[in-house]
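Dock iron/sulfur cluster; give full complex structure.
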Amino acid sequence: MPLNALQIYKLLPKTNCKECGFPTCLAFAMKLAAKQAELDACPYVSDEAKAALAAASRPPMRLITIGSDEHKIEVGNETELFRHDRAFYHPPGLMVRVEDTQPIEEIEETVSQVDSYSVELVGMTFELNGIAVENASGDASTYVKILKAVRANTDLPLILMAQDPKVMAAALENLGDTVPLIYAATEENWSDMTALAKKHKCPLAVYRADGLNELAGLVKQVEEAGVEDIVLDPGTRGFSDSLSVLTQVRRLALRHNFHLFGYPTITFPAEGASSIEEEALLAGQHIAKYGGFIVLDHFDPAVAYPLTTLRLNIFTDPRVPIQMEPGVYEFGEPTADSPLLTTTNFSLTYFSVAGEIQASGIPSWLLVADAEGMSVLTAWAAGNFDAERVAKDVKRFDVADKISHRKIIIPGFVAVIMGELEEELPGWEVLVGPREAIDIPRYLREIWKA
Ligand code: SF4
């Protein structure tokens, strides 16, 4: 049973030395009870206390990492059942499955497409996360050959899918220094798969489809055999059953501290779908609730784009706007005579303005002011994009050193700050630009004069 804050406090040194980063041992105990701190932060906990506190300090869902340092995926460690309660933190890994019975050219093409898929939007890069390689042939040498071909075309993380421990052993021996997810320990092979997971220090998926009690029992056996990094596959595949079962698993882990389900899940949307479109819809459901690794059977940019966008939306902290770094941005090759515009550091605002400046073809400077990630009108209403703030950033980023004129174009929506800004920036002329970004090209071409 997890301990409450007072029970934890009784086990702490009670010296209030503050080395854990909290003002008192009681404050630290409260954070531990809320699973918002790690026990390691206190250097003075006794071994007895550590043992007693292990259950209380354990995160409700373990973080599972696969891949190498450069291309790793971290999944799990979630603390919320609903995103609106706080946030979801670790986006699910979107993987694409190939089978070792496919022609090798087809596999190489799919792997290369997944590897190179990359879309830039609002300053972020959308990508897929890895390849699942299934041993459909049942043959170890075929599987190893295909794995090598996959590896030659990507450094992305891998899921190795084989039911035969001998095949899995051959694959792991030939894989080099990356850390794959092993799929899967079953009722029949769990002992051998567990030994392989321990030997190669890899996370192990545990599959059991005949009920959650049975799955929990198999997870317990795998845990007791010494595997700490586990991924759950309760075997549900359709829309309704996967929603119901994955929700039960998440609820049991987070709300009831049922530690045997305190791991991320793996899903296979194509296995519950009758078409590629249904696969995409089911993958979307799993992104929202509650897939950890989501293995697609098809690569299609028209599917990858909405799924990665949905994932971004759900796994972005709703309390933190997507922001640009404040500063002075260049478009084209601006000179000392080029126009200087200003806007806020809300990403969507920035990219709307940036796109229109680029479309104008007129080299320009853009001062992106620190408006705490808000759009123009919202920031102005909140006092985050007033004359004082803009003037401060003009000085902070040495804008005057970049231009010979002393003119700054403000968004039309904040024309009211014009007079105040001229007071804050003596010797400057404040020009009121268009309200909408779409009118910027016309403004720069027809109205702007240095
Ligand atoms: Fe208490 Fe340990 Fe924190 Fe010091 S570091 S205040 S002893 S919990």
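Observed: The pocket of iron/sulfur cluster is lined by residues 12-13, 15-20, 22, 25, 28, 42, 44 (CB under 6 Å).
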